[in-house]
Amino acid sequence: MKKIALITVDSKVMNSFMKQLNEVFKGEVVIDSFKFDLNGENEFNLSAYDLIVCSSKAIFKDVEKLVPPGKKIVVVRRAINLDKLNEVMKIKVGEKVLLVSNHPYTAEETIKLLRELGIDYLEYIPYYPGCKVEDAKIAITPGGSHLVPGGVKKVIDLGVKIIDISSLVEIFFNLGLPLEETNLLTARYAKEILRHNKYISEINSILKTVIDVINEGIVVMDISGNILFFNEGSKRILDIENDFNLKNISELSVERKNAEMFLNMKEYCNEIIKIGSKKVMFNKRLLKSEDNANGIVLSLNDITRIQRLEYEIRKNNRKKGFISKYTFDDLVGVNENLINAINIAKKIAKTDLTVLIQGENGTGKEIFAQAIHNESKRKDGPFVAVNFSSLSETLAQTELFGYEEGSFTGSKKGGKSGLFEYAHNGTLFIDEIGDISPNIQVQLLRVLQEKEIMRLGGNGVIPVDVRIIAATNKNLKKLVEEGKFRKDLYYRIKVLSFRVPPLRERKQDIPYLVKYFFKKDGSKKHLTKEVLDLFNKHSWPGNVRELENMVYYIENIVEHDEVVIGDLSDEFIEEVRNGEEDNSEFIYILDLLKEKEWAEDCKYILEELLKYKSLNKKVGRNRIFKNLKNKGRDITDDKVRIRMKYLENSGLISIGKTKEGSTITEKGKEFLNFIK
To answer: Residues in domain Sigma-54 factor interaction (predicted)?
Structure first.
């Protein structure tokens, strides 16, 4: 009976190879195993064996010295056990992976085998005992889990590599066994491959079904345009009726420009193209192997269909409540006050507290409210807006709280839900809250306290989960002092608050806003420097809304792209150049200072700066602080800094860089005269 001596370094490898060889030879060959010690002496008596099987090239030269002359040696070529390969194939492209083994040679060998199997898209890092540990979250190992270094989050153990079929055939040949036996061996391996091919075929079938179900069109082709795959969505978008004869993308009846985009070596992202009567969003990615493009994936979305679906979704949302369309991206500008307001609003969005937004009409208070809603945990709920300035008390009550059937003459059959009910699990934006009547104030306060409403004419309460965002262009604190607004309601709605600056305080944002409005309308128009200068001289009492209306005027009246002063209305030019003095800005600033209880402090600061201005001098904040303290003002240095920063943002003073001092502006002088 023939005898084989199997020499290995690792016990796991020895056991695996012994099991495999015994299964192959079924007792017709005697197989003995020897463990090779890399660091010690090895004295094996191998004279009685017909064939020496060495487990690795790494120990071949050392083993060769132990083999008697004339004895044949087979160095095993190894193969990866395919059973665990599916886990490896789930790793994302480009991921760093440690390939862990007990020897540099076997680590590199495993990497080579994985690449030959087509898994060449990972960044393999060989690791073995004694080498430097590199940062990687995943490790792959052929049976060496115990060697994996700490810090690795996922380990894929492929199991010990098996003897490759080519090495088994070589063993048969060197033992002089009948080659017919190798046919059985080949059949066994073929059966194993067929089992894995069947699995891959089933996966491909499932994947094709999934890709066919999605509405997006997917086309996969080689760089010559030969089609490898396309799904049902692409057939619909590209109007492919008979797909049996379609072999190359160039055979499609599309515009020449589109055909070139399909086949060139450029990648595209969200390009809008036309295919027949359809507007299509087109994306293209190149499939690469080792930085060389070897395939193309086209993605096609029928925009017309998407718009139709969006319309249906919006219609359904409107049946339930309302939707918000603005986000923080729609708040355009670089002004420090605006950026500060946006930053505060973003922080507020993370809470679920009641909010008060203060600012003049047209500054964008509702845009802020919608942006807060869209960045809050309620973003998937309704956004309901109501403006009290246009509602009578009775109408305001029925709109907010709803009514039961028969509660008044002309009431709707079945009754009507109120806005609080529509806004359940969402946000209710109450604009111009300073205009609500005392009776509605009481009812609103109750809802904020109890989180429940009662319909007009009803006798039962309805629980509601609603976040309130209120807005006003009035000085609510002043209204409280005058007895026109409830003090308890004021503090209920002003849990969190911020101010939206008027356009006259952020004129550097005008070019950005104009560009935004033109872009929103798909316009190529632009303003000359002279027009922008004129815009900067205007006080914009209607704020951003007035500027937007001006852009609409230009868009619809002016026929050429470059907008000059002559294109503007005579009324607007006259208003800017010859308009009467308007104190509305000073009134607003003074009201705000009184609300903050800063008025007296700011008046002293302006007077101090005016005194030094008359001496043609600038003065530092520390000097102002000391002078105010000497005059008996109860104030701190930090309070002086905050008040001076506000005066600067309002254009009333100019603060220099470190040690340059501050001075009052001409606008500041006018404001000082106004408040005196």
So the answer is: 331-551
Stated as kind and residue range, the H or E segment containing 274 is strand 268-275
The DSSP 8-state label assigned to residue 364 in this structure reads -
User: Of all helices (H) and strands (E), which one includes residue 654?
Assistant: strand 653-655
Q: Mean of the per-residue pLDDT values for the chain?
A: 84
Where do the DSSP E strands lie in 339-486?
355-358, 383-387, 426-431, 452-453, 462-463, 466-472
- Among 577, 594, 621, the domain-final residue is 577
Percentage of the residues of the chain whose pLDDT score is greater than 70: 88
∠ CA 508-514-515, nearest 5°, is 105
472 and 359 belong to one structural domain: yes
Q: Cα-Cα-Cα-Cα dihedral of 236, 242, 246, 251, to 10°? A: -70
Beta-carbon count within 10 A of 360 CB: 22
Residues in the chain: 676
Interatomic CA distance for residues 422 and 44, integer angstroms: 88
Q: What is the CATH number of the domain that holds 352?
A: 3.40.50.300
Residue 90 sits in a domain whose CATH number is 3.40.50
For residue 191, what pLDDT band results from cuts at 50, 70 and 90?
low
DSSP state of 375: T
pLDDT in tens, 6-29: 999 888 889 988 988 888 888 888
**Spatial distance between the Cα atoms of 95 and 123, rounded to a whole number of angstroms:** 6
What total number of domains does the chain contain? Answer: 6
Edge-to-edge strands of the sheet including 496-499?
383-387, 426-431, 466-472, 355-358, 496-499
If asked whether residues 379 and 445 sit together in one domain, one would say yes
Name the more confident of 180 and 133.
133
Q: Look at residue 47 and give its three-state secondary structure.
A: coil
pLDDT of residue 580: 45
Same domain, 60 and 22: yes
SS3 572: helix
Q: Look at residue 198 and tell me if it is in a domain.
A: no
> Cα(425)–Cα(69) distance, rounded to whole angstroms?
87
Q: Which residue has the tokens 């009567």?
A: 277
Q: What is the dihedral of CA 404, 410, 414, 417, to 10 degrees?
A: -60
Q: What is the largest CA-CA distance in the chain?
A: 121
Model confidence pLDDT, tens digit, residues 60-92: 888 888 888 888 999 988 887 776 777 888 888
Q: Where are the beta strands (DSSP E) in 524-601?
A: 526-527, 562-563
Can you point out the beta strands (E) in 171-254? Answer: 217-221, 227-230
Are residues 353 and 496 in contact, defined by beta-carbon separation less than 8 angstroms? yes
- Residue 584 contacts residue 634 (beta carbons within 8 Å): no
Q: Quick one: average pLDDT of 263-287?
A: 85
Between CA 446 and CA 60 the distance in angstroms is 89
Q: Please state, in angstroms and rounded to a whole number, the distance separating the CA atoms of residues 470 and 494.
A: 9
Statement: residue 451 has pLDDT above 70: yes
Rounded-to-integer distance, Cα 414 and Cα 317, Å: 21
pLDDT per residue as tens digits for the range 327-361: 999 999 999 889 999 999 999 999 999 999 999 99
Say whether pLDDT at 200 is over 80: no
Final residue of a domain: which of 499, 524, 544?
499
Nearest to 494 by CA among 470, 467, 473: 470
Domain extent at residue 566:
503-577
For residues 308 and 325, the answer to whether their CB atoms sit within 8 Å is no
